[in-house]
Structure formats: C-alpha cells, structure tokens
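chain below, 241 aa
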Amino acid sequence: MSGVKQRVELVSGYLLHQRPYRESSALLEIFTETHGRVGLVARGVRSARSRQRGDLQPFRQLRFSWQSRGELGTLTSAESDGVIIALRGKALYSAFYLNELLMRLLARHDPHPALFTAYSSSLQVLGQSHDVEAVLRLFEMHLLQELGYGLQLDCDVETGEALKLDTLYDYHLESGPVPTGTDLHGGFIFRGASLIAMARGELDDPLVLQDAKRLLRAALKLYLGDKPLKSRELFRPAKQG
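prediction:
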C-alpha cells in the first residue's frame, strides 16, 4: 500500500480505540466491513470546534472516509450509520473486551466481513440482554475460526470418529480432542456433550457454558501471549458488587 494514494469513501465500521495525538488530534483504530482493521489520524478532532468529536464513540456504527499513502491513513469524515446502542455494566465491559480482542488479534488491512457481522450482532445482543457470557463465548469461537485457529469440536482427532455425548475427552489445544479415561478433575478434560453443544452454538446449559469459557480462555491465550487483557479487569468490581 505504500506509495499509492488511496481514497476510501463511506465505509461502514466501528471505532475500536483512540488516543491523543499532538495538540488536538487523535490516533484511531477502526474495524470496517470491507477493509478490516485500519489505523487513522483524526486531525483536530479533540478541538472543541470539531464536528466529528461527538460522533467518534465506540460501539456506534459509523461510515468512515479516509485517504492514505501507507500504513496510517487520515480521516476525512465520520458520520452516524445507525441507532446508538445503550450499553451499561457488564454489557459495556463485555463490549470493551470484544474491542480489545480485535485490537490484539486482527492484523491491519485484513478484511473479515463475516467477523464484522458477528461483532455488530454481538453488540446488538449485549444491548438487549443481561446474560453476556454466551455472547462472549460465541464471538470468541467465531473470531478464532475467522483467524484460521478454529477449535476442533466435532470429531476425535486421532480416529476422525464423531464425538460421543457420554465420553470424556482430553483436549489438545493445537489439534483437538482425544478420548480419555481420566475423570473431569484430572487435567484439561471435557465432556463430549459440552464439545458437541459448543460446535452447535448451543450454550444454554450452565455446565456447557462453563466448559466453553475454560476451553476458549486457554485457546485464546495461545495467540494473546502472556500480556493480560486490560478489559478483563473491568469485570472484577462488577463481580464484587
């Protein structure tokens, strides 16, 4: 992309993160439907006279225009593209968590239209429901799948046989499940019923949801590394309250 000037007009997207830049500008990271994650300079946006200052809020669908000649572009406009989603408490913390996952795991300029749709849908559900756990687990699974790290949840990786509801499996994170005689307290062990339900996106059972959280947290750690997610700290006061 270096050396070639590119002009992009009215692309649907969301603001993931922003931080101050120079006296009155900001550095933005946005997630768009057609261009993936994009870094932009928003000149003068922190000025009291800026028309875009109020629109540049996370979790609000926007239409972005920018021009670029390299890795970092320059924002030319941002306008509202839908209803503002009201997020509070756990729903708000959860949305920040989704943003941080995208910031940490998505490469710039790598479009993922299906993931964009999943993200937008997740925000909508978070705005309407107090049960955030299933929303987060489904998005995490979708994210891993889109990045090429999808979990093997439907067959024994050694034999290719379909998983069985009443069998226990030792889950190898970089390959998948293999049958084991070890009980549930013996290691990274999961019930076949949980893995099958996860594959179907059926997380209504509290035990399945608990297993999904345990498996997905370990799987994500492979790609996130040891640096902790800041957004997870937001949940601690909520749990204590």
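The domain at 6-80 is CATH 2.40.50.140 (OB fold (Dihydrolipoamide Acetyltransferase, E2P)). The helical segments are 89-105, 113-126, 133-146, 192-199, 206-224, 235-240.
thats it, cya
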